[in-house]
User: Fold these one by one.
Assistant:
Number 1:
Amino acid sequence: WRPKLQNIGGVSQQDWIYSLAVNPNTPNIVYAASHEHGPLRSDDRGETWYPVVSGITDGSGRSIGVDPKNSSNVYLGVWHRSGVFKTINGGLSWVLEENGIADSKIFGLAIDPIQPTTLYLATYNQGVMKSTNSGLTWLPAGSRLPSIYGLLVDPSNHLRVFAGTAGEGLL
């Protein structure tokens, strides 16, 4: 292991990377969700990084995901109850999608690999949320437990979604 992304906010600030996503169609492109400085992108498999924050108004990234069928679509879930930021141009500009999730503390994000217009959010305060229209609107989906940390859509059965919780194990 070698450090590749350090001192995002400067040498006097610490920062954390909560989530990484590799572009499945162009694997040299990697995205990172940083704790307080928004999304970052690498075009050389993680050797060098640069911020992609145009339109980002909340830098508290916790989860990032790339649409497996249209890899220009990238989603960033944030912690400070803003919503999900979406880019349709690989990070050049982002828009906030918040319809139904404006008060959610997002910790995880999963994209259905078969129907990538279907997205799931692991929230710390509202359970699992689901969008079937690429993040434009969100509704509760299944578990309403308050502390969902991670999600995974089963690639062999995209209708099965696993949720990792704080205190309740795996759902």
Number 2:
Amino acid sequence: RHAWEARHTDQGCGLGHTLYVHQDRFGGILNGIDYDVWNPDTDPFIPHRYSAATRPDKARNKRALRDRFWLAQDDNKPIVAYVGRLDQQKGLHLIRHALCHSIWNGAQFVLLGSSPEGDVNNYFRHLKDHLNDSPDCHLEICFSEQLAHLIYAGADIVVVPSMYEPCGLTQMIAM
């Protein structure tokens, strides 16, 4: 779809006609993930490995995630997660909305991410300070490969907000 968008929308940044003329030589490479790295059955970063056959073991990772982030141990609440960059492309207002909507509707929310922009990090640090005493929310303003694996293994829902996204890996990892 990205090749089509580059030829027929403003995503081509002015090269649409040239890309259209040479479309037989213009294609794309599908995104994908390394299943040796993102496999919950063999993942060394998660405390409890699981597969489709042992899916109930995923709940043990959910408890481990709650322990790690000091969330209330409430099995009736789903955990909503965001893992990724904190930048305008992702729709910072959408991330904040997902956080507020989750908490207001009886879910828990975890975030793992950072921004190259100091103001954005400061905004989310301020939000973290404001929500610090909530047993249903935890924000980590950084990136950690190990924490990302734990969040994906323990979350019930992963939000993937974006103002535009040719093809993201987050939804593939979450699956």
Number 3:
Amino acid sequence: MTHEHDDLQLLFDYLVKEYMTQGASITEAQDEAEKIIYENQSNLFGPKGLAYQLGEINFEFFCIYFLQDTFVPKENNAARELSESHYKLWNTLSDMFIEDEFDKLTVIAPRGFAKTTVCDFAL
């Protein structure tokens, strides 16, 4: 399996999630994701491409795709598997910075939780 295939699968999966958060059924979301990938096949991962556009509205996708050397464990990096709490924190940060739902946040987590990496670096 190539990295390009992994990236395409990641893009598809997050597009499906995005459509489902907007109320689509799993089948509708998959159909829409396939359609938008097909329509944008000439620029999926390039400048201002589909991945860029999704990253603008989905903070979790932004971190997993654009910062994958930090957040996705691979043979050639020291990344660790993220916990459910890390994803919840990204959702909270998304609510704050993308959805503009609130202005201040205090994050309290145990030493070694990767607060600086998951929050400050990602932002």
